[in-house]
Design brief:
The complex is a heterodimer of chains A (305) and B (183).
Chain A (H helix, E strand, L loop, with lengths): L15 H8 L5 H13 L1 H22 L7 H13 L1 H9 L13 H22 L3 H5 L4 H12 L3 H14 L9 E2 L3 H12 L13 E10 L4 E9 L4 E8 L7 E6 L2 E8 L2 E7 L3 H14 L12
Antiparallel strand pairs in A: 1-2, 2-3, 3-4, 4-7, 5-6, 6-7
Helix pairs in contact in A: 1-3, 3-4, 4-5
Chain B lengths: L2 H20 L2 H17 L10 H20 L20 E2 L2 E2 H8 L4 H12 L4 H8 L3 H21 L10 H7 L9
Antiparallel strand pairs in B: 1-2
Helix pairs in contact in B: 1-2, 1-3, 2-3, 3-6, 5-7, 6-7
Classes of the chains: A alpha+beta (305), B mainly alpha (183).
């Protein structure tokens, strides 16, 4: 500290601490009375005491009445008053607008349960909106979301993705879009039914302006798969992908990749996927029709997308 | 009185003290807000028959010191010190020009300023101040008397610099008296 003159100029037994305590009324009565008389004999000590009292008064004016500093007399009165009546201090400070905002913290278990609720809400939203995400974000995340969603919901996205890829690969093909053309429809159906070990049927999409181009055999996830291709007058193509699926689930799902859309479902041990690069609503309508034609129950999809 | 109501009842005084301590109204209001929140969150740490005000002041002090470290300002001779934004008070009290007192107050190191404000303005007893500051009573007394002498020296020197109390030259003159950086 810089107070090298600590206690200097003060008589024996009178140090600054004692004087300080005297100013603050912290001395025992006997010592205080003694000091009263001592101060009379030591003007230097008395000057200290009055200087410090003045400091206190000024500081109180500065702090307690700082908003009313326009009139120092007023400030001083307020300060003096507060010194004599400690209760008044609250009054002057309470003049300030009370704008404390108390964000009450909750007990830990309330916070924990709140957090759990939010977590549940978040998970629910993720489950509910997951399939919509590709629509919202374009397509880049479609595959990932589709995967995640399908894994979460236990749906076989695998064959839908294969159907989508097969569509992407073969639908642009001009010269060899199919292995067996529609002109040999009976042969086509027999051949693929044999390979898939299931009686297949090829629904007609003439109603929508699509006629059968033909079909081909493809490797599926766990065996052969069949792809039937349709084409309309404008050259737009749809494919129906059919493969055996171990699990028998009837959920109706949409898988997006780029501008391609694949509606897929499982019925009676077979997975079906209708892929196309046309409006989703249109494709959906066709898919429902196809499902129905293939013995599925599209009415159970109404709650789905 | 419930615990909560008691905390709230002390808020005006906490605010006044925080303003004086920081010299920055916005900062002070934040401090009081934080203090109240922490107090209400840690009500279980409060021993029922102990001194609520000292407890609150301790919380406020810890928050202030934390934030002070965060801000890394508070060179008192810094022209941008927060208290310089305070409205300069008018008038004098007991022969002391309030504006000089204000300037001198913020030239004191934090340890001296806080004890001076706690005892001189908030009228804490030495016992309460000791508990709020977390130091023995003897230390409170030493700091307090040093703070008073320090302030007296600053005030004795201040007006000698001439009537231009326009802070800038005067502030530069008192800068060497800044002895200790805040803890």
């Amino acid at each position: 500290m810089n107070n090298d003159d600590y206690g200097s100029g003060l008589p024996e037994g009178l140090d600054l601490r004692t004087l300080s305590a005297y100013v603050d009324g912290e001395l025992p009565d006997a010592q205080r009375v003694a000091l009263d008389t001592q101060l009379g004999q030591h003007p230097q000590a008395a000057a200290r005491v009055s200087a410090w009292r003045a400091q206190n008064a000024a500081l109180r004016a500065l702090c307690g009445a700082s908003r009313r500093e326009a009139d120092s007399g007023d400030a001083r009165d307020a300060a003096a008053g507060s010194a004599k009546h400690p209760a008044d201090k609250r009054r002057s400070a309470a003049d300030e607008p009370a704008f404390i905002v108390l964000r009450r913290t909750r007990p830990w278990w309330q916070r924990a349960s709140l957090a759990a609720c939010w977590l549940a809400v978040g998970a629910g939203l993720a489950l509910a909106l997951g399939p919509l995400a590709p629509r919202l974000t374009g397509n880049a995340w479609g595959g990932i979301w589709g995967n995640a969603w399908d894994r979460l919901s236990g749906q076989p996205a695998g064959f839908a993705q294969r159907a989508d890829v097969a569509y992407a690969v073969y639908s642009p093909e001009r010269r060899h879009p199919v292995e067996v053309a529609a002109s040999e429809e009976e042969h086509l159906i027999n051949w693929l039914s044999k390979r898939l070990n299931r009686p297949l049927s090829v629904p007609s999409l003439q109603e929508y302006g699509y006629s059968l181009v033909g079909g081909r055999l493809l490797p599926g996830e766990a065996g052969p798969a069949a792809q039937f291709m349709y084409e309309n007058a404008a050259g737009a193509r749809l494919t129906l992908y059919v493969t055996g699926i171990a699990r028998n689930e009837t959920a109706f799902r949409l898988f997006r990749d780029g501008n391609r859309r694949t509606f897929y479902w499982v019925n009676d041990g077979m997975g079906y996927a209708l892929s196309g690069a046309i409006a989703e609503g249109k494709l959906r309508t066709i898919a429902i029709d196809v499902c129905s034609a293939l013995g599925g129950k599209p009415e159970t999809w109404n709650g789905e997308q | 009185m419930t615990f909560e109501a008691e905390v709230i009842a002390w808020l005006p005084q906490l605010r006044r003290y925080a303003r004086a301590l920081t010299g920055d109204y916005a900062w002070a209001d934040d401090l009081v807000q934080d203090t109240a929140e922490r107090a209400l969150a840690r009500w279980s740490a409060f021993r029922p028959n102990s001194n609520m005000r000292a407890w609150l002041l301790t919380i406020l002090r810890h928050l202030y010191i934390d934030q002070l470290r965060g801000r890394r300002e508070i060179a008192v001779d810094d022209e941008s010190a927060p208290w310089r934004n305070l409205e300069a008070p008018q008038g004098e009290v007991d022969g002391l020009v309030l504006r000089d007192v204000q300037r001198a107050l913020y030239c004191l190191p934090l340890e001296q300023r806080e004890v001076l404000l706690l005892v001189g303005v908030e009228e804490l007893t030495y016992q309460e101040a000791s508990s709020a500051l977390g130091v023995p009573i003897g230390t409170v007394m030493s700091r307090l008397s040093r703070a008073r002498e320090h302030l007296r020296a600053l005030l004795a020197q201040g007006p000698a610099e001439g009537p231009s109390q326009g802070s800038a030259p005067a502030a530069r003159n008192v800068a060497p008296l800044k002895v200790v950086r805040n803890p």
